[in-house]
Specification:
heterotrimer; A alpha/beta; B alpha/beta; C alpha+beta; A: alpha/beta; two-stranded antiparallel ribbon; C: alpha+beta; nine-stranded mixed beta sheet; seven-stranded mixed beta sheet; 25% helix; globular
């Protein structure tokens, strides 16, 4: 069974995050790391592969050439192979453009199962997998907090606002896993040292068969106009309890329609 | 413009946030405003949508839409958007609609802006506002082409009656094979303990100022009265007073409820970063210099042991009295 | 009652950290030379080895797939590196012969300097003591320099393994064969969590310990191989911040005096530094010897107090704090050097060996040079016909250290630090005499007492610390946050400490620690210390003052980038 895990390199959490005022996009220069949410997806893929005793875990990513360093961490955990689409023309891709690129990459790999992490620590979006599933024309399960694979079917416990659904789908399928699904393993030293030797392929858009016009800013259907400060929090009040604090809190809640 | 608002529903009720989005669209004067209600046994709900400004309410009522799964909805909406030349589709973000909106974006190659906390019309264009970088910066976003798709953050808009003449139109169902492949084996039922802290609209959080683990009962009572969840700080979780799953903060969970009530919490930055996206923050602490007062909307210097039970009582009374 | 922290020190047996390899042979990792610590000493060693092996391909091949491996306990290289710093370029020039200093990520040459004696409101310029003249030196961020050195090391063929702590020395039969790395994924009480990953035995022909201040295995090795010198090591604690400022600072500043107290009974030796970091940033730090005696002394709070002085306030005006961190510095100098820096199969370099010139506040160039010399000694001992595990095989390292500028520099200033134990004024006079006589006067060698043997006194010092205002002055917890530390809450406690101790001792620890790891409740009599180990930024102060820092899980602790 071939499992593809879509992963992303994001800026290091401790690096002061800034939006480049020129391009109005996240300044992605500087240290990068594997998106922490994707690490859960990698772990789940490894568990499924290890439980079945055979199979391959392929990492698929779109990013600058540096992204290979982040992919190496996932290789160190035990993934078998990394496949990176790297091209200047892909920079600034929005959801539509990213879906076009990832979709092509996944069609090439033709995996039985595609896994995503539930969001990205940089753009905080929680939507990519649904777009990719539609593009690949495959059934989708998102927010999986538990996942089992057997006999060509995948079964997940999905977390929603109302509790847990149990959803099943036949393979090939696309599943996005929540960070509650597992505790990722620490890469072993042997794994870290062996990661560099695992197959790592980088392709350009042209090699992948994606038109430059379908990628990057050219292929994006959304745009950013301006940056601004967050709206002011509003008046902040401080009161001392003279015995009526509870009543004052209540009227505060009522006034703001919070009750 | 021709705008469609997707109305989600649960247990026989139209979902409040989606009605809020519909109200907003109406107040912006978006022309040819319609709404869509998809599901099984939902015709009654459709008529209610007119009260919030939808001139046309499209209903697709079919057993295949009973389970709240996204892909069949993408099929129905995509066809609707194409056939009626709808140029804007708005969703209130939920687990379900996030998947629907993104699937629709791929199907129609339509731009999607998500996590919007504001929606405006500027120079004839639709402009969304969204936070970025942990709510420290706000970005104005737009669409380069049509159709446009937007996901609006939960709790952004309140429903407002704007009754208009509305007509209901029935849609037929035509689903792709792959959209039918995922099946609901067991659907979620209301959890008896209330929402988890990640999903809760209201959170009552307790810190060391509660004094003892037993006093978490005070926070629990208030949370129950408000229909919310209970969270805890790292200090009390470390001390074993409350489970790690409820820890909010840099090394715990990040939450952004509409209302966050911090009880006996000093508010060090490690805690703040886990809840700074909250809509309204009320802090109760007996130390007037506690850092939490620097970022709370309402700060109460007082004794949590006296204030919490009283507040709980008042909330319960109000809810009972209506 | 005289209270000495040393009387309450936990019992740690170094022997517990010296073991034989236990992994099955096919699971052991084998490398050629193993370097512990990706700081300037360790990376200089790796870089020099890369240069030497580049010219000796047959030897490189015999060392296997991984000829040089560098272990780093921090999240990434640079995560645990912190210094002032003004760097003497000698070390870099000798390591990178033929390359220009301008290619290296330094923050500019020192353009000017000033040394001031401060009072609460005033600042008197004093002539820079000769040991402190910085003409020809460069300002640097050690964390940033470390990252660049790591790239150079990797280009030379070294393998750097971050998030890996070296916990035990593998030394069967008195010969060092490598290290055992620490476990990951243990819970609060040491239990194995679901993602538990045991440490590994890493075997090497030569092991170089370049762990920096308070090096864990360095301490173990000094005990185990009997390498201690005539005097114990002593330390200072440095706490520093980096600020983005609107007006560039054009000179390097050192201060003495306020807020430290001059009287001999306080034993407050130290001062502050303010260095420009390029055009947009400055770094300001406070360094105080850990032989201080006041229970309420808090170097973090002294730094906050320092910033309220008009001289410093002016420099920081309109600015924003962007980094914070703390680390200890070995201060014993020449007199506290180990008797030997090698053992069978083992070399010790850098701050771990105590190679710091305290009056000049410099150690980075010694770290680089000692790392380079260690590489050369290791290279010699790996030649065909040599056996690095043989007694004395690595003795050429000590010889080369003795012949180097490290030795002559440290010897010349050997008594200066201890002179200041007699108070600022007497110390200053003695220091002047030492400088003038180039170390000949006063003759002989001072005796050094352990920091933890200093008796504690109470003076109400804490009453004068400024309350944090969140703009100029800051509390400890928000500072820990800024250090990037995100240590797992349920990680095992890596600090060995007696928990039930006299109240003043507990209070001393609470004040001493810049990261608020130790807390003591109100009350009377004996106290129980609360330890929040996840706040720890691994500065090492506790080891100097009655406790013991052991290696935390690899990858935990601060994530410095600008320090």
């Amino acid at each position: 069974m071939k499992i593809a895990v879509c992963v992303k390199q994001v800026p290091e959490a401790t690096a002061p995050k800034r939006i480049d005022p020129g391009t109005k996009r996240l300044d992605r220069s500087g240290e990068g790391t594997l998106n922490p949410f994707d690490v859960h997806a990698v772990e789940e893929a490894l568990r499924i592969r290890d439980a079945s005793g055979e199979g391959e875990v392929v990492l698929v990513s779109v990013g600058p050439p540096r992204a290979l360093e982040a992919l190496r961490k996932a290789l160190a955990m035990g993934a078998d192979r990394a496949f990176l689409v790297s091209d200047d023309a892909a920079a600034g891709s929005d959801l539509v453009a990213t879906t076009a690129i990832l979709g092509k990459a996944l069609e090439r790999e033709a995996p039985d199962l595609v896994l995503f992490g539930q969001q990205s620590s940089d753009a905080d979006g929680a939507v990519l997998w649904a777009a990719v599933a539609d593009r690949l024309r495959r059934p989708l399960i998102s927010q999986a907090a538990e996942l089992t694979c057997s006999e060509g079917r995948v079964r997940a416990k999905r977390q929603t606002e109302y509790g847990y659904d149990v959803i099943e789908a036949p393979l090939p399928a696309v599943v996005a896993v929540s960070d509650a699904i597992n505790e990722p393993r620490y890469p072993s030293l042997k794994g870290i040292m062996g990661a560099k030797r695992k197959p790592q392929e980088t392709v350009s858009l042209a090699e992948l068969g994606v038109e430059a016009s379908a990628a990057g800013e050219a292929g994006s259907k959304t745009e950013v106009y301006a940056l601004g400060d967050p709206p002011p929090r509003g008046e902040s009040r401080k009161i001392e309890d003279d015995g009526s604090a509870a009543e004052q809190i209540l009227s505060y809640l009522v006034d703001r329609k919070l009750l | 413009m021709s705008t469609l608002v997707f109305l989600e529903h649960h247990a026989g009720e139209l979902q409040k946030d989606s009605l809020g989005v519909l109200s907003r669209a109406a107040s912006l004067g978006l022309e040819e405003l319609s709404a869509a209600v998809l599901g099984s046994g939902v015709r009654d709900l459709a008529s209610r949508a007119g009260q919030f400004g939808a001139g046309t309410v499209y209903v697709c009522d079919d057993p295949s839409l009973e389970a709240p799964l996204p892909q069949p909805r993408v099929d129905v909406l995509a066809r609707l958007v194409r056939e009626r030349s709808i140029d804007t589709v708005l969703f209130a973000a939920t687990v379900l609609t996030a998947d629907v909106a993104a699937g629709l974006s791929a199907r129609l190659a339509a731009g999607l802006n998500w996590d919007l906390t504001g929606l405006e019309r500027q120079d004839g264009k639709l402009v969304g506002k969204r936070p970025a970088l942990g709510d420290s910066v706000y970005v104005d976003v737009g669409w380069k082409s049509e159709p446009r798709i937007a996901l609006i953050r939960s709790g952004t808009f309140e429903p407002q009656g704007a009754g208009v003449e509305s007509k209901v139109e029935e849609l037929t169902v035509e689903l792709e094979d792959f959209s039918r492949a995922a099946t609901m084996v067991e659907q979620a039922h209301e959890e008896s303990e209330g929402p988890s802290i990640e999903d809760a609209d209201v959170i009552v959080a307790g810190g060391r100022g509660l004094g003892s683990p037993d006093n978490f009962a005070l926070a629990e009572a208030l949370a129950r009265a408000l229909g919310g969840a209970v969270a805890a700080t790292r200090a009390v979780v470390d001390a074993g007073w409350y489970p790690y799953a409820t820890q909010v903060g840099q090394t715990g969970k990040t939450v952004s409820p509409r209302l966050y009530i911090a009880c006996g919490i000093s508010g060090a930055i490690q805690h703040k970063v886990g809840m700074q996206g909250s809509g309204t923050v009320i802090a109760i602490n007996k130390d007037p210099n506690a850092p939490i007062f620097e970022y709370s909307d309402l700060g109460v210097v007082g004794d949590v042991h006296a204030i919490l039970p009283k507040l709980t009582e008042l909330v319960e009374a109000r809810k009972a009295g209506g | 009652m005289i209270l000495r922290p040393a009387d309450y020190a936990p019992r740690i047996r170094s022997g517990d950290f010296v073991v034989e390899p236990t992994d099955p042979p096919d699971e052991r990792i084998e490398v050629g030379v193993l370097v512990v610590g990706a700081g300037p000493a360790g990376l200089a060693c790796a870089i020099r080895l890369g240069q030497l092996l580049g010219e000796a391909p047959e030897l490189a091949e015999r060392l296997g797939d991984v000829p040089v491996a560098v272990l780093e306990k921090g999240k990434a290289t640079g995560s645990h590196l912190l210094s002032g710093a003004v760097v003497d370029p000698r070390g870099l020039r000798r390591l990178f012969r033929g390359r220009r200093i301008e290619e290296m990520p330094l923050l500019g040459p020192v353009m000017g300097e000033g040394v001031y004696f401060l009072t609460r409101r005033g600042a008197t310029r004093i002539p820079a003591p000769p040991t402190m003249r910085n003409h020809g030196n460069y300002v640097a961020s050690l964390s940033q320099l470390g990252r660049w050195l790591a790239e150079q090391a990797e280009e030379g063929g070294a393998t750097i393994l971050p998030q890996t702590a070296a916990e035990k020395l593998l030394a069967p039969g008195g010969r060092v064969r490598g290290v055992r790395t620490g476990d990951k994924g243990r819970g609060r009480s040491g239990e194995e969590l679901p993602n538990f990953e045991p440490g590994s035995d890493i075997l090497a022909r030569v092991t170089v310990l370049a762990e920096g201040t308070q090096g864990h295995l360095t301490g173990v090795a000094l005990d185990h191989f009997g390498l201690h010198g005539a005097n114990p090591q002593i330390w200072a604690l440095g706490v520093k911040e980096v600020w983005r400022v609107p007006r560039p600072l054009r000179r390097v500043i050192h201060t003495m005096g306020w807020p430290l107290r001059a009287g001999a009974r306080y034993r407050e030796f130290g001062g502050s530094f303010i260095y420009p970091m390029g055009e947009e940033m400055v770094t300001v730090g406070m360094v105080v010897g850990l032989d201080y005696r006041d229970v309420e002394l808090s170097v973090h709070d002294l730094l906050q107090e320092l910033k309220t002085h008009p001289l410093v306030r002016r420099i920081l005006a309109g600015g924003e704090r962007v980094a914070w961190g703390a680390k200890t510095i070995p201060e014993g100098g020449f007199l506290s050097l180990p008797s030997r820096l090698h053992a069978p199969g083992l070399l010790i370099a850098g701050d771990g060996a105590g190679l710091v010139n305290v009056p000049a506040l410099k150690g980075i160039h010694y770290a680089l040079e000692s790392g380079r010399l260690a590489a050369e000694a290791a290279f010699r001992a790996l030649q065909p016909g040599e056996a690095p595990g043989r007694r004395g095989a690595l003795a050429s390292y000590d010889d080369s250290i003795r012949k180097s500028f490290i030795w002559s520099d440290l010897k010349r200033v050997r008594n200066m630090r201890q002179a200041f134990g007699r108070g600022f004024w007497v110390g200053g006079a003695l220091a002047g005499a030492m400088t003038a006589s180039r170390g000949a006067f006063p003759p002989g060698n001072s005796k050094i007492e352990r920091d933890s043997e200093q008796p504690l006194i109470v003076t109400g010092r804490a009453g004068r610390y400024p309350a944090p205002d969140g703009k100029l002055t800051f509390d400890k917890l928000s500072s820990v946050y800024l250090s990037g530390s995100k240590t797992r809450d349920d990680a095992p406690n890596h600090i060995r400490l007696r928990r039930d101790v006299p109240r003043e001792l507990a209070q001393m620890w609470a004040r001493m620690c810049p990261a608020q790891v130790y807390e003591v409740g109100e009350g009377e009599g004996e106290a129980t210390v609360e330890v929040t180990a996840s706040n720890c930024i691994q500065c090492g102060a506790i080891t100097a003052k009655g406790g013991r820092l052991t290696p935390a899980e690899g990858g935990s602790g601060p994530e410095y980038t600008l320090t």
